[in-house]
Design the sequence.
């Protein structure tokens, strides 16, 4: 369901439900948060919830879609800056570090979700894979521009560094993790420069 009212506006109740669910899913885990809790904290009725989201799975997919769109928007903004590809990679890396250093950081929403939905055929697992495939392809394309050659290995290396930083960022000193991640990214970029 779109959740839009006449005139194309998103329903306030839908926004409140999605905002509440997103906060709870991210901070506490998807399986540990029930529909009753979401309805109570969003201050809506169950009927309102089901009008916008036929089931909890639809709400989880909307949460992941919103997270995906936010990341795509930040990457698109960096790409639209007209800067060289290496600087776009640096900008993407900077917003990853900004997230790691933000209050309440609890790792990657997508990695957290896929840990709770390990069945590769489940729609939530599939949504996570789609996001990750887009991110890998985007980073690989940018690194191909930096290297002026195919950069599949470098793209995978970047994503693995990012995944490690996201996992470590909620376990250890986020400042140190951010610095380590950025040094690793510079190593990837320098390798591309030296290989030309």
Sequence:
């Amino acid at each position: 369901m779109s959740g839009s009212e006449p005139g194309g506006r998103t329903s306030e109740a839908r926004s409140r439900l999605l905002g509440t669910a997103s906060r709870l899913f991210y901070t506490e885990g998807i399986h540990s948060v029930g529909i009753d809790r979401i309805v109570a904290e969003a201050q809506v009725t169950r009927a309102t919830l089901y009008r916008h989201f036929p089931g909890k799975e639809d709400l989880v997919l909307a949460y992941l879609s919103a997270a995906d769109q936010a990341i795509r928007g930040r990457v698109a903004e960096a790409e639209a800056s007209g800067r060289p590809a290496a600087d776009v990679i640096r900008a993407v890396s900077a917003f990853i570090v900004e997230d790691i250093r933000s209050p309440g950081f609890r790792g990657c929403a997508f990695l957290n979700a896929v840990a709770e939905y390990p069945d590769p055929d489940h729609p939530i697992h599939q949504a996570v894979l789609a996001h990750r495939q887009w991110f890998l392809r985007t980073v690989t394309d940018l690194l191909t521009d930096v290297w002026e050659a195919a950069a599949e290995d470098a793209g995978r290396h970047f994503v693995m560094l990012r995944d490690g930083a996201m996992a470590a960022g909620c376990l250890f000193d986020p400042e140190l993790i951010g610095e380590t991640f950025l040094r690793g990214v510079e190593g990837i970029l320098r390798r591309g420069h030296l290989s030309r």
